[in-house]
Amino acid sequence: MLYPKVRRKLVLALLGCALTTSLNAAEVEVLHWWTSGGEAKSIQELKRLLAAQGHKWRDFAVGGGGGDQALEALRKRVEEGRPPAAAQIKGPSIQAWGKRGALANLDDVASEQRWDVQLPSAVAELMKYQGHYVAVPVNVHRVNWLWISRDALQKVSGRSPQSWEEFFSLGDRLRKAGIVPLAHGNQPWQNFTTFEIVVLGVGGPDFYRKALIQLDPTAIKSDTMLKAISTFRRLKGYTDAGANDRDWNRATSMVIKGEAAMQFMGDWAKGEFLAAGQKPLKDFYCASAPGTSRAFIFNIDSFAMFRLQDPKAVEAQKAMARAVMSPEFQSIFNLNKGSIPVATAVNLDNFDHCAQESSAYFVATSMIHALVPSVAHKMAISSAQQAAVQNAVHTIWNKDEASNEDGVGLLLAAAKVPAD
Ligand code: BGC
After folding, report:
1. Which of 112, 154, 236, 415 sits at a 20 to 30 Å CA gap from 12?
2. Considering the entire predicted model, what is its pTM?
3. Residue 65 CA to ligand 1 centre (angstroms)
4. SS3 assignment, position 100
């Protein structure tokens, strides 16, 4: 039993607390493209954390994997002078929005939570514009994975392919057994995701950098690129007729159900397996894509914060940034999303072996200069260049009558598009 005086004090203190929370409570509008099963489950955690602080989440979700549609919607809203509080933006686009003076300064939250210490320095740099934090990172995705149905593999007594030749001979056996070897969706970003994986697998990290990041004409004209293009086009023969315009998560679902054996995709695909109740090793395998076991294509999701006027809205925006970098969120979000935490101090004991491997590869590949940014996922080149290369790759996949040399020509033309 509390003494009346103490009780009164406690009640007043609690009332004060509730009052401050509700006085400062505001809405945070967040643009993102996380609409698949695993993605929606992950973003739910952020909504929950914000709600716990009394803030209201306003969802600005624009579906379409890879974010092309979402970013188009963002451009329109900013042009109308109504930016959201936060938007899922990555890599060089953060700098581009910073240059336009559109982003808010998060330095006070960053110094309070010691982001400079918590983040790998290369990641911290990506989140800053002219030395000031304007975005908060969420995770690290590894792109160069091959997801394999354990059932399908067992049906043909196969093993994870280590080389492209092994991939194709496994594919032949799967097809004979009536299983679609490769689940895929013929959408520009999915084709580009597969292409960058093939370029890395065929040419290695140095070639990847020269060809896809520096857009160096000599690398694009090389025999290595011809080989990458022909390997990429050969994959098409291992997909099914339904691939046209199939969403990535529907392709993953084919692997989950054992209708298809494999899928090339970043580890957001693991979020789908987990959301469907499947477990790595028991139901599915995560293997490095052929030829890429010693390399890592990284894709870091982040939220850039837009400059707002209302002080309450600014507070809510900062609360969101703080929540994203909290160990609680970094852990639970990434457990659902398939990625690994970007904050280095977060404990990985609860994570599965795919995530543990990803984390070990992230560190090891950075030491041997084999850690490369995803071009398909907008981490490396300007948005105009990225769109041009993506279109070229989409045409290469779809124009069966063209030659591999024509493909080189398309890439060379795309490489000439100036950075925006
Ligand atoms: C994002 C992932 C997302 C995936 C599919 C990628 O560009 O980085 O977070 O899950 O697209 O939508």
Report:
1. 112
2. 0.94
3. 6
4. coil
